[in-house]
Amino acid sequence: MKVTKFGGSSLANGQQLQRVYDIIRADDDRKVVVVSAPGKRFKDDRKVTDLLLSYAQATLADEDTTEIIETIKHRYHSIGEFFELPDYELADLDEQIEHLARKHYRSFDYLYAAFAAHGEYLNAQLIAKIFNHLGMPARFVDPKEIGLLVNDNARSATFDTASYTTIGELDLSTSERLIVPGFFGYTRSGDMATFSRGGSDITGAIMARGLRADLYENFTDVSAIYAVNPSIVEHPAAIQQMTYDEMRELSYAGFAVFHDEAIIPAIQGGIRINIKNTNDPDAPGTFIVPPTEVQQTRPVTGIANSNRFAALYLHRYLLNKQVGFTLRILEILKRHNISYEHMPSGIDDLTIIFDKTMLTQEQVDNMLSDIAAEIKPDTLKWIPSYGIIMVVGEGMRNRVGALTEIVAPLKERNISLQMVNQGASEISIMLGIQPDLSDSAVEAIYTNIFK
Amino acid sequence: MKVTKFGGSSLANGQQLQRVYDIIRADDDRKVVVVSAPGKRFKDDRKVTDLLLSYAQATLADEDTTEIIETIKHRYHSIGEFFELPDYELADLDEQIEHLARKHYRSFDYLYAAFAAHGEYLNAQLIAKIFNHLGMPARFVDPKEIGLLVNDNARSATFDTASYTTIGELDLSTSERLIVPGFFGYTRSGDMATFSRGGSDITGAIMARGLRADLYENFTDVSAIYAVNPSIVEHPAAIQQMTYDEMRELSYAGFAVFHDEAIIPAIQGGIRINIKNTNDPDAPGTFIVPPTEVQQTRPVTGIANSNRFAALYLHRYLLNKQVGFTLRILEILKRHNISYEHMPSGIDDLTIIFDKTMLTQEQVDNMLSDIAAEIKPDTLKWIPSYGIIMVVGEGMRNRVGALTEIVAPLKERNISLQMVNQGASEISIMLGIQPDLSDSAVEAIYTNIFK
């Protein structure tokens, strides 16, 4: 049995959904289908999730919502029309869209979460209707029905592993395909709460593990995961297979094809993942598998980079002689609900690296003023933009010299690094770099290693 | 005015002290003399400080102390005899040695601190007597007299900077040389408390800053600080001058010539330091100076290594998504009064590096069991011996490619690194390595860079 997940671009319109239908019909093992909300149909289009968030905002601001409601309805209706689904089949979807604004929510966060979750929630209902209409028995499965529980973090929820038991009880013996909306679960109080953006991958992984699937297929719009971002290097090498940990490290630093948190259920359940292309379903795609299944041929599997970081630099003499120095800094971070990514230190120097997409300017200002007042460093410097490059490969385990192949081409091009962190992870080397140098550094490293 | 400090090997016997006398007499600017306890006279000799610690132990165990007392007395007497100092001059020293065992102490730690401090305390008194006997007016200055205050950490005390004021009031207008014992100060309650071992360097630096000395001379048994440990590389390059920060980084990783904490008062007071050789006083030695005074000629000033570290490796998925994860680990460390050195992290991995000379096995066991119970990592590994190499040079600031010159020779010799930490400090690159590979790695790096 396979759990098969489709991303937003695979579900953007009727034409794309037709491909999805064909893919599902071609393989009876594709029993459980996890779907995202309809994505962009063209470059400047808006995703349905973004439309729903505008609708949420307008509702909160008590603005006129007629137009945005019509736009959202139209997206679903146009998909239905493609398949000549009778209009009355969509009446309950329309009602749900309108009802969203009239419900009571525990907080603004839960309101936003519920609006956003409806992109998937409505789409799964619609897709079940369309599949039945086209003659393939299908049933919409509400995450509530299978007890997909999450914690109380409304818009970046964490999955409650107790749910694997109830998910595992889902009846797969019927002939119906089961259509499950991705991206959200329910809190113990019954509120919808979403994973972080892109979280449909997580739902797919949870379903695959809970149901002990043989394979978790993840359909997207690329035929493989490439060893480097194709916008940096033309026609880069495709990765045929890689390990779970390699995927995690690469997605951390910008490989957005697969959500990094979605790997965990797969690892824990030993579920193989296959990234495939809805528009080229016969291509083998990329397999993400346990380390025992991979025969490595090259030291480096992929090179990722992301400029979403920021850094704080601190200098203070005898910094590391004080028990509790870093502890006091971390207490300040916790006070402002800030988590950090990495903390390389010298004898008298400490750099703290943050994911700036997780920070507001207010948090940064408060943190900086508290550190200045309570820690009294000799130097305190905020670096608002910081790039990270991850060079990843199981082949680097116990292999001498990978670092030389990484830094030598940078020296040649006179590109300087702000940080080198090797050894914390056995399968990757992390580099810190000025954001504007990041792409050319990646290109230099890729060219040296892969060509 | 110069503050001139002599280490234990320069004061081990009468012959050595004669050299010290000649050095002091040769320069009227050598007004303040800071002395250590008599050190080893030959390879398997015992330092007086170690004899005093045995005496402390025997006292606590209520064992017979006659022999150890005689051994200690003999060390001082044999120095006095060399200068034909009349025996009655040493009567009050003998009395002080005996009296040590009869005094009351606040705690075992204060007992050990007082016994250890007497190595310097008695030696400074003896040296003042001998200098006077030889015709050079000299006066013993008790740190109590100049208000050299320290905090309540009996055996690894921190200096109270308020003391600079009282030290600055010391009368330097007399013709006497002032003989100050190194290594210890007094708490506010009047107890002797020592700096960490080698702490006479700290006393010298404090005196130099408090008295605004023109130069802090630090006499030891080498004619210069070398760019690499002479036991690893034969006839290494001598360092003629380096900056304060370079010295700090090098002494952190094993350059024991100068105590790393002793740099701080010098930096703060802008005091130049000159490391010189008692046995070759005309050699220029090594100057440690502010960065503005150094003309750099090579990217790397020195390479140090030390195997005094240990490491803890932790693996846990989504480790860095949790606000407060590291905070909880640091709280466990603080609970057991453990400070850490460095904490390189990957996405799901965290390595914590410790100075194992600061740890007891009991602390380690307690920390490991608390981390296992409270943090529940997927993997928890204790690495009892871990080497660190520091490649240090102001010339590395903004210089591209230093890392290549460091890792390339290691690749050639097939030496693998466990950690590379570049960027936390602007003037050094820190490498983690298996202790048994450390020396050959240093040799390879030195050869590549210096030859």
From TrEMBL, chains A, B:
UniProt keyword Nucleus present: no
Matching Gene3D superfamilies: Acetylglutamate kinase-like (3.40.1160.10), Aspartokinase, catalytic domain (1.20.120.1320), VC0802-like (3.30.2130.10)
Catalytic activity annotation: L-aspartate + ATP = 4-phospho-L-aspartate + ADP
Annotated EC: 2.7.2.4
GO CC terms of this entry: cytosol
Pathway: Amino-acid biosynthesis; L-methionine biosynthesis via de novo pathway; L-homoserine from L-aspartate: step 1/3; Amino-acid biosynthesis; L-threonine biosynthesis; L-threonine from L-aspartate: step 1/5; Amino-acid biosynthesis; L-lysine biosynthesis via DAP pathway; (S)-tetrahydrodipicolinate from L-aspartate: step 1/4
Family label: Belongs to the aspartokinase family.
Name of this chain's protein: Aspartokinase
